[in-house]
């Protein structure tokens, strides 16, 4: 059986940009590992983003605000470019309060201790009058991938939901080269070029992607992943997966990362166990319990 025997080196090119080199790999393992890491890096790493905003005196995103050069829609677009790191299982509210003639930057946000920002110099808008005032509450949260605005809506008048791209990885590409071991050149070298948004180091992003893949492969290697052939087809069809629950994508991803993939996985959990799942939180755990109940699964 093939055993892993290779080294990983990191070449820092510039701020937030690195090249991760993996070698020597058995022939054809370069594409196997390079492509798997690239796909997870671009789609499955957790990051922070603004998901909602409430602006005093504004009822919808197509409004204007007295004394502000930009319209509200442009302000929202600028908010969506901010790169947050959120150390919380639940959404966090951030205050923005600025007055007078000034250039409003992301550095003007009043960040709590559990939220950091990697691009504080981003210009949000321009106030053009000494009497101008801008007061807003921006809600930020952790998540993965892309979440459309409708999934971030709360139904409260004046609260504008935002579509959010949570991925901390801006770009990831890989190339394969031949690697030599002794006299043999029948090995692969992976060059993984990576750019992040500053909330995570490229090297850490690769490690996190590897951990996610390891979790899935470990699950495949476990007995829980398999349904015995002798089980009736009807049992397989009704077993169900957590995807069948009507829950937000963020909550669904948190369950899957914890190895809770099938509905049957929920049967062995208590409500206390569920609330301990990383990035789930008490409110989301309660939602899972209620949706599981609808499927006939009681979580005590």
In short:
The chain is an alpha+beta fold and 300 residues long.
| Superfamily (CATH H level) name of the largest domain | DNA-directed RNA polymerase, insert domain
Domain count: the total is: 3
Quaternary status of these chains? Answer: single chain
CATH level 1 class label of the largest domain: Mainly Beta
Order of helices and strands: EEHEHEEEEEEEEEEEHHHHHH
**Going across the major beta sheet, what is the strand order?**
1-2-14-13
Low-pLDDT ranges: 231-238
> How many β strands by DSSP?
14
Q: How many strands, which pairing sense, and closed or not: the largest β-sheet? A: 4 strands, antiparallel
At the fold tier of CATH, the topology name of the largest domain is RNA Polymerase Alpha Subunit, Chain A, domain 2
Shape: flat
Helix content: 25-40%
